[in-house]
Design goal:
Shape: globular
Radius of gyration: 24 Å
CATH class of the largest domain: Alpha Beta
Number of helices: 11
Strand content: 25-35%
Family: Belongs to the class-III pyridine nucleotide-disulfide oxidoreductase family.
Structural class: alpha/beta
Cofactor: FAD
Oligomer: single chain
Distance between the termini: 85 Å
Low-confidence stretches: 459-464
CATH architecture of the largest domain: 3-Layer(bba) Sandwich
Number of domains: 3
Organism: Chlorobium phaeovibrioides
Keywords: FAD, Flavoprotein, Oxidoreductase, Redox-active center
CATH superfamily of the largest domain: FAD/NAD(P)-binding domain
CATH topology of the largest domain: FAD/NAD(P)-binding domain
Mean pLDDT: 95
Protein name: Pyridine nucleotide-disulfide oxidoreductase
Largest sheet: 7 strands, mixed
C-alpha cells in the first residue's frame, strides 16, 4: 500500500505532535501525517505521577484529538526505513509513504549501562515513554515493599517522592554528592534532600552501584561499590536517557558527539528537507554555547514549533538559539525550579558571576490562606550585569515564575533592566509589591555588585 503526503512526522509524542500541528497551522494547504507505534502517547513529564498521585496510566495520556482536530492524519505503525534520496519511508505493516518534507521526532530511550551486572533480572525496571510497559511496571511494583531507585535526577527524585506516598520503603542511590545537582547548586539540592528525608526516603549520595544480585531470577540485592548491600524487591533504573536515533543512523544521517542528530538553528539536518526535533535532536546551551545532552519536553516542543514554522520557508526571526534549560518539579509539595546556568557551572565555564537570593511570600499579606514562602536566587555576570541563571522554590506559583526568569535570560536582560520592570501584583496571586521576591533578589544582586565595585575601586594600588 502506498500513500503520499507533503509532510511526514515520525514519532508522535510532544515534539512530533507540536511539529505537525504547528506546521499545519502555518501551511494549511499542505497534508501532514504523524506515524507512531503507540495508539496512546503518555504525557512525558507526568510519568512518575502514575505511580502515586494518579490512579493509572490512562490518566496520563495525550488526547489524539490534538492531532486529528488540527487536520493531521494519525497512523499507528512504525517507520522501519527512510530513504532520503527517493523521499520514501517504509513501515512495519508494509505502508510505503512518499513525502516532500520529513520531521524525525523519535525521542529517547532509557540508558541501561552495559557494565551493570544483573540488569536483566526480573523486577528491574526502566522508565520509558511506553504506555503498556509503564502499566505493567505499575502493576508489578504494587506488591513490592523495598524499592531501590538508581539515579538522583528528576525522574529518580520524582519516582521516590511518589512511591513513598504508597508506603513503600524507598532508597535512592546517586553517584554525585547531591540529588538534582545538574539542575541546582548545592544550597537548593540540600533543601530537596532534606524534604525527601523528612518524607522517609533513604538517600545514599556519593555512592556508586556495583551490581544487582537476585534469587530465582528476580532481583533481591543492590551491591554498592563501598561494600554495602541494599535489600530490594524491585529496582528502578533512572540513569538518564539516550537519543533514539537508530532510524536516522540507518538512513545515513550525521550524529554529534553525544549521539544526537545534528541540526541547524532551523532544526534542519544536512539534508534540507529532513528536520529533527526533540530528544533525538542535537542541543546546545543558550548561555555557554556548548553541546548538551539535555532532554526536556518544553525544549522539545520549542524546537518542534520552530521546525513546523520553517518547513516551507525559512525565517531569521524563527530560529532556535539554544536551550535555556528550564526545570521545575515538586518534592513533598514544595516547588523547585531553575533556568539558565547554575552558579557552579557558570564559574566552571569561565564566567565571573555574582549571586544573591531573597525569601518572601507568594501571596500577601502572609495571613492569606494558602500563602507559601517563596525563595528566588539570581546568577548574574559581574562584568555585564546580564542575568545568566536563576532558581525558585516555594508554592505552585514558582513553576510560572521560573518561566518569567527564562524570558529574562533569553531576552538578555541586565539586572538593571530587571529592576525597572513593571510587575502586576494581587493579594491572592502574587507576593506584595513592596517585597516581590524576584525584584528583591535582583536588588540583593545589585547591592552586591555595587559593594564589589567599591572594593575594587577603593583598593590601594600595589607598589611598583
Amino acid at each position: 500500500m502506498k500513500k503520499s503526503v507533503d509532510v511526514l512526522v515520525i514519532g508522535g509524542s510532544a515534539a512530533g505532535i507540536a511539529a505537525a500541528t504547528t506546521g499545519k497551522a502555518f501551511y494549511a494547504d499542505k497534508s501532514f501525517m504523524v506515524v507512531r507505534k503507540e495508539r496512546e502517547a503518555v504525557v512525558p513529564c507526568g510519568i512518575p505521577y502514575i505511580f502515586g498521585t494518579l490512579k493509572g496510566v490512562e490518566q496520563n495520556v495525550i488526547p489524539n484529538a490534538h492531532i486529528e482536530g488540527a487536520g493531521v492524519e494519525l497512523v499507528i505503525d512504525e517507520v522501519v526505513s527512510l530513504d532520503r534520496e527517493t523521499k520514501t519511508a517504509l513501515t512495519a505493516n508494509g505502508l510505503e509513504i512518499s513525502f516532500d518534507k520529513v520531521v524525525i521526532a523519535t525521542g529517547s530511550q532509557p540508558r541501561v549501562p552495559g557494565w551493570l551486572k544483573g540488569r536483566d533480572l526480573q523486577n528491574v525496571f526502566t522508565i520509558p515513554k511506553d504506555r503498556n510497559y509503564l502499566a505493567d511496571v505499575r502493576e508489578r511494583i504494587e506488591p513490592c515493599e523495598k524499592i531501590v531507585i538508581i539515579g538522583g535526577g528528576f525522574i529518580g527524585v520524582e519516582m521516590a517522592d511518589e512511591l513513598i506516598k504508597k508506603g513503600k520503603q524507598i532508597t535512592l542511590v546517586e553517584v554525585l554528592p547531591h540529588v538534582l545537582s545538574l539542575a541546582f547548586d548545592s544550597d537548593l539540592s540540600l533543601k530537596a534532600e532534606g524534604i525527601l528525608k523528612e518524607r522517609g526516603v533513604t538517600l545514599r549520595t556519593n555512592e556508586k552501584v556495583l551490581a544487582l544480585e537476585g534469587e530465582g531470577g528476580a532481583v533481591r540485592r543492590v551491591m554498592l561499590e563501598g561494600g554495602d548491600t541494599l535489600q530490594a524487591d524491585a529496582v528502578i533504573l533512572a540513569m538518564g536517557y539516550a537519543p533514539n536515533v537508530a532510524l536516522a543512523e540507518k538512513a545515513g544521517m550525521k550524529l554529534n558527539e553525544l549521539g544526537a542528530i545534528k541540526v541547524d538553528e532551523y532544526m534542519r539536518t544536512a539534508d534540507k528537507d529532513v528536520f529533527a526535533v526533540g530528544d533525538c535532536a542535537e542541543k546546545f546551551s543558550f548561555i555557554t554555547r556548548i553541546v548538551k545532552g539535555l532532554m526536556l519536553a518544553s525544549t522539545a516542543v520549542s524546537e518542534a514549533r520552530i521546525a513546523g514554522m520553517n518547513l516551507f520557508g525559512l525565517s531569521r526571526l524563527r530560529t532556535f538559539g539554544g536551550t535555556i534549560a528550564i526545570f521545575s518539579t515538586a518534592i513533598g509539595g514544595i516547588t523547585f525550579a531553575a533556568a539558565g546556568v547554575t552558579e557552579d557551572l557558570a564559574r566552571e565555564r569561565g564566567f565571573d558571576v555574582v549571586s544573591a537570593g531573597f525569601e518572601g511570600i507568594d501571596k500577601h499579606p502572609k495571613t492569606m490562606p494558602g500563602t507559601a514562602a517563596q525563595f528566588v536566587k539570581l546568577i548574574v555576570n559581574r562584568e555585564s550585569g546580564l542575568v545568566l541563571g536563576g532558581a525558585v522554590t516555594g508554592g505552585v506559583s514558582a513553576g510560572e515564575l521560573i518561566n518569567v526568569i527564562g524570558v529574562i535570560i533569553e531576552s538578555k536582560m541586565t539586572i538593571n533592566e530587571l529592576l525597572t520592570m513593571q510587575f502586576g501584583t494581587h493579594p491572592l496571586l502574587t507576593g506584595p509589591p513592596t517585597g516581590y521576591p524576584l525584584l528583591k533578589a535582583a536588588e540583593a544582586v545589585e547591592i552586591k555588585l555595587r559593594h564589589l565595585d567599591r572594593c575594587v575601586c577603593g583598593a590601594p594600588e600595589k607598589a611598583g
